[in-house]
Amino acid sequence: MSYNNAKELYASIGVDTEKALQKLSEITISLHCWQGDDVCGFETVGSTLNGGGIQTTGNYPGKARTISELMSDLEKALSLLPGKHKVNLHASYLDNGGIFVDRDAIEPKHFACWVDFAKKNNIGLDFNPTFFSHKYAEDGFTISSADKGIRDFWVEHGKRCRNIAEYFGKELGQRCVTNFWAPDGYKDTPVDRMAPRQRLMESLDEMFARPIDKKYNRDAVESKVFGIGSESYVVGSHEFYLGYTMKNPDVMVTYDTGHFHPTEMVSNKISATLLFADELLFHVSRPVRWDSDHVVTFDDELQLIAHELVSNDLLGKVNIALDYFDASINRIAAWVLGVRNTRKALLKALLEPVAYLKKAELEGDLTTRLVLTEELKSFPFGEVWNEYCRRNNVPESDWLAEVKTYEKDVLAKRN
Ligand code: RNT
Ligand code: ZN
User: Residue 132 and residue 124: Cα distance in Å, rounded?
Assistant: First the structure.
């Protein structure tokens, strides 16, 4: 089967593959820098950060130890990815010139190298305050801490992160999305569930007080159902942040697909949320039991999310970022696989005869809906994907060989 055969087959069910490819090219995916170095960052080069909130497992050799190594790895990954991208940075990925700069003192100048990197690679940047891996995160509370000194420290961090994001937006002529996630919560059952939420609300209000032109930055807030060390209670729950964004519509809600109960689907939340919010941020991830951050595979939920976005014409209202970190496999392969799967799922959705399926559903022909949906699963969307890769001068399915060569030539020499 060639692309032209696939094109004809899709045309026979009313789908224009060329239009699908065109739409696919308009989608930007944000690549999370933290897969490249196990969320370590460059705040204290060479030593492990203290304080909780995030955990990676695995010790696959070759992780990036410096900003320039991480940049080189990101460029390798980008060279194997078709389409438009941004790189998503955390505040802990600053360039402090070798002198420790604490979170409440970071400035745009500490990220100038990333702006240069973005310009060189013709990509945008997204940003995240780092409310974890720090001595003031050790007791599990940051922006909702009962200690005003600690809270103020983190609020200052959040404000500074928004300044940096605005700087990215201005420098790159492309809006930055800044995502606020804080690990705050209790391992065991709290007595007072309300006071920490009240403090979180007030800290967010303070951090978001300065208006920033939406041309340059837009903020988002990310919930979680539980985490390691916050098994019983997370301050920033889904209801909390959904409520917060309804009251503060300039702030978007973030859906991390790994942050819900195991049988709860983010795909089912999109249509409801976007009837009331104008935009969303996604952290595309994959939950496995108690972990929320496995490499994104081409699973049912990913395809359903893509279907929801495409079939309801919502691509213009969502920001698609990835979030996972696996230190047990080649980190560049982890990046490339997750991004390609995400884009591939979007392509598969773009190749659905949506109008026809919706009509069948509306007319009560649920037999057609089921049969056609199932038959579509074995349609040759892989041929259309390969054509997309060829047109973008990236390898088709055999990209791993290039990663292995890079591993041998570059990563293996890092230890
Ligand atoms: C953690 C959140 C958060 C982080 C990154 C590093 O559970 O998903 O988004 O993974 O900010
Ligand atoms: Zn996330």
Answer: 25
